[in-house]
Amino acid sequence: MTVSAFCSVSLEPPLVLVCIEKTASAYQALTTAPGFAVNILSARQEQIARRFSITDIDRFEGVGFTRSSNGYAILDDVLGVLECRRFALHDGGDHTIILGEVEATRVESGSPLLYYRGGYAQLEH
Q: Averaged over 77-104, what is the pLDDT?
């Protein structure tokens, strides 16, 4: 599921922030679940990012993934994964701000998929 914002908040404790629109199809699931996973896509995974931005479809159909020990969907071949316990919810106008405490991570080498000014981009080396 896509979100409108994601960033780090704190190193101690390790916290990240995710913002989700209150009308999003995944809103109820994200705001009531005890936690969530952040999948960091590689530069080769633009098609997956586009698929997850479409509403009213089964986003996982045809997309390879496994379940973490907490039951979160971990997409195949991602650059990184952050497994988070929900730490707090805050109202943010038409969005809800979800703070998650990072409990587990996984990082692979490669180039990340970037989204900038309404389009996908890659880091130049």
A: 96
Encoding tokens for residue 75? Answer: 């997409």
Q: How many residues are listed for the chain in this entry?
A: 125
- Domain residue extents for the chain: 5-121
Predicted confidence at residue 62, as pLDDT, reads 80
- Which of 119, 53, 49, 104 minimizes the C-alpha distance to 77? 49
Whether the model clears a pTM of 0.85, i.e. scores above it, the answer is yes
Answer for the pair 86, 72: CB distance below 8 angstroms, yes or no.
Answer: no
CB neighbour burial string for 67-94, b if at least 16 within 10 angstroms, e if fewer: eeeeebbebeebbebbbbbbbeeeebee
The class level of CATH for 5-121 reads mainly beta
